[in-house]
Structures are given as C-alpha cells and as structure tokens.
UniProtKB/TrEMBL annotation:
Pfam families: GreA_GreB. The keyword Protein biosynthesis applies. GO terms for molecular function: translation elongation factor activity. This is GreA/GreB family elongation factor. Keywords: Elongation factor, Protein biosynthesis.
Length: 157
C-alpha cells in the first residue's frame, strides 16, 4: 500500500478546504466593507454581522492552514506500531476489514486507495486512542453508541 498516494489525497483535500475558506473570507470581508452596507440607523446591523462573519472566516482560514502544516510532515515510512502516519488495517468479528490512517487532524475524511476506503482518524478519537502504541495481532476494543466493538489489528503499514 502506498501511503504517499494517501498523503497526496489528504493534502489535496486540505488545500481545497483552505481555498474554499479563503474565498469565503474574501466574500465576507467585501460584504463587511461595502459602502452599500453602511448602517442607516442603529437597527441596521448587516455590516456588523458581516464583520463578525469575516472574522470567523479568517479564523477558519488560519485553522485550515494549521491543518495543512500539521500534515505536511506526516511520517510516511512503514510503521510497526499505531502512531501518527500509521495506516492500520483492522478486522472485526465478522472478518470485515477497516482501513484507518492516523493523522493529527482531518478526522472523518475518507480517502480512496485501490478498492479500499481509508478513514482518517485522530489520536483524540476513541479508535485512534485505542490504536496508539498497539502492534499487529493486538486486540482493541472500543465502545461506539454504547456498543462494545472488538477488532484485531491485521496489519500496520
């Protein structure tokens, strides 16, 4: 399995989020500073609301850039334990395989590799925390929606 391809897909996704956030921030800033939105009375709050929106969008841009920065140096070498950059293949009691990429950000993003869907998880998630420092053939259990699920680590890449 080529983790470089997964990393490129992840970076493309994060860059797309950043580009969208920048465009939204620009539109919000233009709305906030438009002469058409100058308040005509004390109840006219469109410009103020647009300024709040512009501030929030700017913070979103900052967070998107921080996510990219956190993923640029994601370790892509073969892992032997569950750690950042590890691609973990789990199998449940029904022999269904799950492919998980442990990443510092972007939890929930789905990537495609060959015929597999790879779910990005963070160490803060229940499954991410359970996988940290685990090895191939280890058993992990997590509770999701009040239901205990058991997995075996089939492979760590």
């Amino acid at each position: 399995m080529n983790k470089i391809q997964l990393h490129q897909q992840l970076m493309t996704h994060l860059q797309s989020l950043l580009n969208n956030a920048k465009a939204a921030a620009k539109r919000a800033h233009e709305t906030a500073t438009s002469e058409e939105n100058v308040a005509e009375n004390k109840y006219d709050t469109l410009a103020l609301e647009a300024a709040y929106l512009a501030q929030g969008q700017s913070q979103r841009v900052t967070q998107c850039q921080a996510d990219i920065d956190a993923c640029i140096s994601l370790p892509l070498n073969k892992s032997t334990v569950g750690s950042l950059g590890a691609l973990v293949v789990l199998v449940n009691e029904l022999d269904e395989a799950k492919y998980l990429l442990i990443c510092p950000v972007a939890g929930g993003v789905k990537l495609q590799w060959e015929q597999h869907t790879v779910l990005v998880i963070t160490p803060e998630s229940p499954i991410g925390a359970a996988l940290l420092n685990q090895q191939t053939d280890d058993q992990v259990s997590i509770t999701i929606n009040n239901k205990k699920q058991h997995f075996e680590i089939l492979q760590i890449i």
